Amino acid sequence: MKRIILIFLCSAGLSANAQVTTLTLKDALNYALQNKAEAKKSKLQIENSEYQIQEIRSRALPQISANGNLTYNPVIQTTVIDGAGFGQPGTTIQAAFGQKWTSTAGVSLTQAIFDQAVFTGLRAAQTTREFYQINDQLTEEQVIERVANNYYSVYVQRERLILLDSTYANTTKVHDIVKGQFENGLAKKIDLDRIVVKLSNIDTDRQQVKNQVELQENALKFYMGMPIETQIEIPKKEFEAVPAALTEVPNVENRTEYQLLKKQEELLVFQKKAVQAEYYPTLSLSAGYNYIGQGPEMPWFAKPEKGVYWSDFSAIGLNLHIPIFTGFGTRARVRQADVEIRSIQEDMKDTKLSLDLDYRNAMTQINNNMVTIENQRENMRLAREILSNTKNNYLQGLASLTDLLDAENAHQEAQNNFTRAVLNYKIAEISLIKSKGELKTLIK
Q1: Beta-sheet pairing, 63-72 with 101-114
Q2: Phi-psi region for residue 301, left (φ > 0), alpha (ψ -120 to 50) or beta?
Q3: What are phi and psi of 21, to 5 degrees?
């Protein structure tokens, strides 16, 4: 009975592992955005930015702390004073001030009243949040682009494998025909050997493509954050090439890459203002309340009967700091911040050119690949007709085996060229969608 149960459980496990997940492009992208490490980490950066903002805000709030100490003075310092104050004019008295034991406990408060650096930090807090939100959007777009490109690459490799399987099956039929002819003395040994070599080469190509399919699938699953052992299937309709509609040149300032640089520029401006704040005076309020105990023995829990006395004291003050000369250090840091701002402005100009170039290149590739697809579709149709006619002629003795093998090679090459053309089109299509800032439309 145990053996039967074990066999059943193993069969159920194998059946579960054999399940295939049908994966559309939208499914793949949504899965990646929910599971890929980069997408998760960008969300964590947004969460962490809230804590950074709280840290900045804390500088404008009161800073309260409690403190305490216990001090033992084995040797009390003495002070030499004029005896006139003690009714002994003309003499000098060496007196010890203090007690062997001293303990203090208290609470202190500090509140910034005017600090330009704090005010600048508070103004930069919102920009910091927006920076991480845009960065999260950019990360998602990068994940979408990478997964989409690998998704189509997997499809192409699978199509190549299907083509090779079909070619292998067709060539096997020809092999059987040639073998029968050879056995009946109607074909030469060299013809049979050539078809055997052809089959062997096709089978070698199949094994190589199978390996490439597995490697490409594993790469896709990795970029999606999907377990490698998952079996996936891609619907054929996902690989249709549809002519792209011509649109106006997109405004590159709406692109996420440019917006992120713009936010970086804003943060650098705030950084410069924070450095400039060192020129301004600062004003703060401080207050403290303390309780002190002194005596010849440890003051804790001791009473006046043992010579230990406790008393409280308090102080409230305003602290004003006016910078006068800092050795030109502040000026140097301001100029460094200004250089960083000018540097990122150059990056923004270069990014504008790059994004515009991406759009125009994508449109060129789209148009060229669409023409190539139509040409290769016609070539594939002609190659199919030639192969069919050549096969009939061969069976009727009107064509040589060389003609048949050449026709098969031409047909296989035409199909491969068509598949590659469609892949190039889909990759160019992703580039076009990216250049328009519309990658998110792929998940809607």
Answers
A1: antiparallel
A2: left
A3: -95, 120
Distances, alpha carbon 303 to alpha carbons 210, 284, 287, in Å: 90, 39, 29
Residue 223 domain flag? yes
Angle at 177 between CA 175 and CA 180, to 5 degrees: 105
Residue owning tokens 């509609």: 245
Side chain identity, residue 361: N
102 domain-assigned: no
Establish if 302 belongs to a structural domain: no
CB distance 23 to 437 below 8 Å: no
H or E element, residue 290: strand 282-295
Q: How far apart are CA 67 and CA 365, in angstroms?
A: 71
| Three-state DSSP class for residue 54 | helix
Bridge-based pairing of strands 309-321 and 282-295 is antiparallel
- Of the CA atoms within 13 Å of residue 295, those in its CB half-sphere come to 17
Q: Are 282 and 115 in contact (CB under 8 A)?
A: yes
User: Is the residue at 89 inside a domain?
Assistant: no
Alpha carbon distance 419, 155 (integer Å): 9
pTM, two decimal places: 0.78
Least reliable range by pLDDT among 155-159, 217-221, 284-288: 155-159
Q: Give how far Cα 256 sits from Cα of 130, 196, 351, 427, 434, Å.
A: 12, 57, 11, 20, 10
The DSSP result for 87-122, as a single string, is: T-TT-EEEEE-S-SEEEEEEEEEEEEEE-HHHHHHH
The tally of CA atoms less than 13 A away on the side-chain side of residue 403 is: 14
Q: Where are the alpha helices (DSSP H) in 225-235?
A: none
pLDDT for 238: 60
Q: pLDDT tens digits, residue range 325-354?
A: 888 888 999 999 999 999 999 999 999 999
Residues 6+ apart with CB under 8 A from 318: 113, 283, 284, 285, 286
CATH number at residue 273: 1.20.1600.10
What is the residue range of 32's domain?
Answer: 21-59+115-280+323-443
The tokens for 218 are 């594993």
> How many domains in the chain?
1
Task: At 195, list the tokens.
Answer: 């078809």
Helices (H), 225-328: 256-276
